């Protein structure tokens, strides 16, 4: 699939999920700004330290529980969880920004056929990428650049100290 088209589709879905999460009170109002910051910084980090170390950093910052919630929301929507937890911030903005970004990247790599493991299992997925990270990073770059452009166009900068 064309990386630009896929990024536009994924970003559109992301926008809807973030808006629904904010509306139900389970996401911080600044989640979009956090994603914007991640889209700007992680691309440079991939170039500086490599794909697997950069994505490992994302997973560490996201935390496993937040990542699992993001994966579930991406696959099924906020649904019953939003009703049950209405008004409770379930996902912090920084963790959520990293989790959404990591999931989108791993999902795209799987669609390209580079990744066979399920993006819902990030440790296994990262292990699989070790031997192909240079190629994967090159194929991932146009997708990440488009996500960055869209995030910059739609979401404002994080407040001072956040980016």
| Overall residue-averaged pLDDT value | 92
Distance between the termini: 31 Å
| CATH architecture label | Orthogonal Bundle
Which of globular, elongated, flat, extended, rod-shaped describes the shape? globular
CATH superfamily: AF1862-like domain
Describe the structure concisely.
The chain is mainly α.
Features:
globular, Peroxidase, domain 1, 163 residues, 8 helices
Could you walk me through the main structural features you see in this protein, from its secondary elements to its overall organization?
This protein has 8 helices and no strands. Helix content is 75%, strand content 0%. α2 (31-49) packs antiparallel against α3. It has one domain: Orthogonal Bundle (Peroxidase, domain 1). The chain has helices spanning 3-24, 31-49, 51-62, 64-76, 79-84, 93-112, 122-129, 133-154. With 163 residues, it is mainly α. The model has no long low-confidence stretch (mean pLDDT 92).
């Amino acid at each position: 699939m064309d990386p630009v088209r896929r990024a536009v589709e994924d970003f559109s879905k992301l926008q809807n999920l973030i808006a629904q999460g904010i509306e139900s009170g389970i996401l911080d109002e600044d989640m979009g700004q956090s994603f914007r910051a991640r889209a700007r910084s992680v691309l440079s980090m991939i170039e500086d330290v490599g794909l697997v170390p950069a994505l490992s950093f994302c997973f560490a910052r996201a935390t496993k529980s937040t990542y699992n919630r993001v994966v579930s929301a991406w696959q099924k929507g906020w649904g019953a969880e939003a009703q049950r937890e209405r008004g409770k911030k379930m996902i912090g903005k920084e963790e959520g920004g990293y989790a959404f970004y990591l999931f989108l990247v791993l999902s795209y790599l799987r669609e390209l056929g580079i990744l066979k493991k399920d993006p819902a299992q990030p440790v296994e997925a990262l292990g699989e990428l070790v031997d192909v990270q240079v190629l994967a990073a090159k194929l991932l770059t146009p997708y990440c650049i488009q996500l960055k452009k869209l995030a910059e166009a739609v979401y404002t900068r994080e407040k001072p100290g956040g980016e």
